[in-house]
Amino acid sequence: MTTSLVEKLFKLRENGTTVRTEILGGATTFVTMAYIIVVNPAILSFAGIPYGPSTVATILAATFGSLMMGLYANRPIAVAPYMGENAFIAFGLVIMGISWQQRLGAVFVSGAGFVLITLLRIRSWLANSISVSLKHSFAVGIGLFLAFIGLYETGIVTSFVTGVPAQALLAPNSTVLHAPDVPVKIGNLRDPQVLLALFGFFFICLLIYHKIRGGILLGIAVTAGLGYVIGIGELPRGVIALPFTGDYNLGAIAFKLDIPGVLKLSFLPILLTLFLMGFLDTLGTLVGVGAAGNMLDEKGDFPRIERPMMVDAVTCMFSAVVGTSTSGAYIESATGIREGARTGLASVCTAALFAMSLFFIPLVEPLQHLRYAYGPALIAVGVMMLGSVTKIDFNDLTELVPAFATIVMMVFTYNIANGLTAGLVLYPLFKLFSGRIKELTWGSVVLGLLCSIYYIFGLPH
After folding, report:
1. Can you tell me the distance from the alpha carbon of 189 to that of 350, in angstroms, rounded to the nearest whole number?
2. What number of CA atoms fall less than 13 Å from residue 423's CA on the CB side?
3. Sign of the alpha-carbon torsion through 200, 204, 210, 212
4. Dist CA 406 CA 103 (whole Å)
5. Is the separation of the CB atoms in 179 and 413 below 8 Å?
6. Mean pLDDT value across residues 130-139
7. Backbone angles phi, psi at 79, to 5 degrees
8. H helix or E strand, kind and range, residue 247
9. How confident is the model at residue 175 (pLDDT cuts 50, 70, 90)?
10. Which helix (H) or strand (E) holds 157?
């Protein structure tokens, strides 16, 4: 691209930045979120989606979304499959016994719904219908849910019934996850893999504390390396490989989504949950990175938010088509913004780095099989999401009770959908019977009624 074309596309001078600054910011964002290449396929494998094709799909979704965010929305915000949504696809839908093709179909339909509300410009109506406390309870619940998965996967905690994490999580003769046997207890702290996982968690948190770029990915790699040294795990079979061939043939999962299979009443809670999770994640991320880069207006709103939201919606549909989970704006983009990134050129750079990583999948693939290496990353992400608890109003029971129900139902029933629907049903009910009906919005009432279908019709959960 010539200098004049770059200036015309990204308005660098208008945003007070340079090509060098944008490239540095985009590279920084890539390094901080590249862990998703390892973690996302590892999580989705428990839904029956094979590692190799899933890794390619993850990278393609990140490349497509980040490129669109740069060229269409001109924002320094990277896009990739969300943590939390992938856990819901792999772990939260286990008890409903639906195929991974149907799960991808649900991702596509929820993305289509996201496109619709963006086109109709009813984003603010829906966003304002969910209280601040409830929004933040979603983040806390999902964070604890991810942390529990990480703890159980690594063996730091294990089942009183089976005692072995891998056997507790996997159905006989299957790679598809089922809900863990409860109650749980502390794991075998003399097990080398458990000790490695504890080290990995501590090391990742230490790197994050010191603001080391790519701390999560670096922590995964170092923990895996220590495992290799003591004879646990396997070395990469290679460094470079052609994507879309052999074990990385996308044909195994691309275009396999089952859309007709999810267009029925029993799938409404799933669709609503995916829709709300993606919607709230996007909204929260845009506001968060906007604040980091002084991009918010005087009212604290993200200007021209429809464009980045449309990018998220279309990328969500693209993700389902290629065979991965819900994608959206990544909060790790704040690291690139702190390096000075202010335009979509940074996102284009991030997209280019993701595209290049397609040729180095063999180097990272073994990490996807090492629970002691990637499990601590899930716990660390959960820790970071827990900070949202401070935004919950503990002095108002009409806010606290629905938020509490959201969190505990997610974690203790091992299902994110249960938590979201419980909180959204309880919120209008508690306001109504507390004599504070004036605080309700039509949006919260509509969401409450939709979620009540989950319980009225006795859908499996």
Report:
1. 40
2. 31
3. positive
4. 22
5. no
6. 84
7. -130, 140
8. none
9. very low
10. strand 157-159
- Cα–Cα distance, 195 to 218 (Å, whole number): 18
Q: Which residue has the tokens 């208008």?
A: 14
Name which of 83, 85, 40, 73 is nearest 58 in CA terms: 40
Residue 440 identity: L
Residue type, 167: Q
Contact 78, 350 (CB under 8 A): yes
Measure the CA–CA gap between 353 and 222, rounded to whole angstroms. Answer: 22
Structure tokens at 235: 């070395």
Instruction: Return the structure tokens found at 351.
Output: 């997209």
pTM for the structure as a whole: 0.78
What is the reported pLDDT for 123?
65
CB 312, CB 114: distance < 8 Å: yes
State which amino acid sits at residue 121. R
| Cα(106)–Cα(274) distance, integer angstroms | 8
Give CA–CA dist 281/327, Å, rounded: 10
Q: 14 to each of 7, 18, 102, 342, 385, how far by Cα in Å? A: 9, 10, 46, 10, 34
Q: What is the DSSP letter of 395?
A: T
First to last CA, the chain: 52
